[in-house]
Amino acid sequence: MNILLIQTAWLGDNILTTPLVANLAKKNDVDVLTIPKCMQVYENNPNVKHIIAYDKHAKNKGIQGLRQIANQLSGHDYDAAIIPQKWWRSAIVAKLAGIPMRVGFNDAPAKSLYTHRVTYRNEEHDIIRLCELIKPLGVTPEIVSPTLYPSESDFFTIKEFIRLFHDRKTIAIAPGTAWETKRYPLFDKVAEIFTEKGFYVVAVGTESEKELCENVIKNSDGKVFTGKTILQTAALFTKISALVANDSGAGHIASGVGTPVISIFGPTTPEMGFYPWGKNNVIIQNQIECRPCSLHGSHKCPKKHHKCMRDIAPEVITDNIQALVK
Fold first, then answer.
1. The pTM is what?
2. For the chain, what is the radius of gyration of the CA atoms?
3. How would DSSP label each residue in 212-240?
């Protein structure tokens, strides 16, 4: 069968979809339709035949853009479309492209456009939920870890940077997220404690998060690693002892290369099923009654106290790291 996977959600969602891709590829040719900034998630992946860009916010924006991408897909003769994201746009694209079998979740607003509906299991991790989508194809899913595939070029790019570690155990801190309430506000204290304990600290983020990263290492001798690609960041994460991150894409990048992750959850909760997958990963959270206050986080705390993050002591984080990397 020729299978099209349509996943146009966030970075973390795409990384969590790679186990589904591995399952789909066992008996099928698999193409992936995703947004341009997430195409690297599938680069060098032996389970993916083609990666197709769906620039839904620019080039392919609106109804006309939707028709353009559907027309492009219609020439590929896909037998089935697997649609993890629940909203209308992905389902409409598959329908307009004339893909005969369309598989999605039974609680999706767009479920009327699916030919096969799979039960969305709220109580499970998202990897397990996503792998259920293969069952209508007559395949029993195998639960595997998410995987990213940095190239030799990605490792070459970071070669000079990792020399700064001087063989010290290195901790990376990723302070950014798209939502302010999901940002732990005391990462500078965490970095300071790590430095006192003899660790080297790297602050990691996007180019727009450079100032945020610089603030993290202001009291340490660490360095900032920003503006790099997803796979260059993944390559860096193979060279560190552990990553400390908010509930964000960075944690999923680290889990995609098997690096331990300390995840700090505030307005969101791990029970939603989107935490980084891995047996050595740790979740830190402050169990207060107003959590979760949002599915994705927000720009301001609804209660105006942000205790879910502010009341987590930096020492809780550093003690967990020491136990993890000893």
1. 0.96
2. 20
3. HHHHHTTTSS-EEEES--HHHHHHHHTTS
Quote the CA–CA distance of 107 and 84 in Å, as a whole number.
11
Q: For 14-57, what is each residue's pLDDT tens digit?
A: 999 999 999 999 989 999 999 999 999 999 999 999 999 999 88
Q: Which fold has domain 152-325?
A: Rossmann fold (3.40.50)
Q: What is the residue whose two structure tokens read 């697997």? A: 82
Residue 324 is encoded by which pair of tokens? 């993890």
Query: Of all residues in the chain, what percent are helix, strand and coil, respectively (each to 5)?
Result: 40, 15, 45
Contact in structure between 185 and 309 (CB atoms under 8 Å):
yes
The pLDDT value recorded for residue 326 is: 66
Tell me, yes or no, if the two domains 2-137 and 152-325 fold the same way: yes
Q: Which CATH architecture has domain 2-137?
A: 3-Layer(aba) Sandwich (3.40)
Domain parsing of the chain, residue ranges: 2-137, 152-325
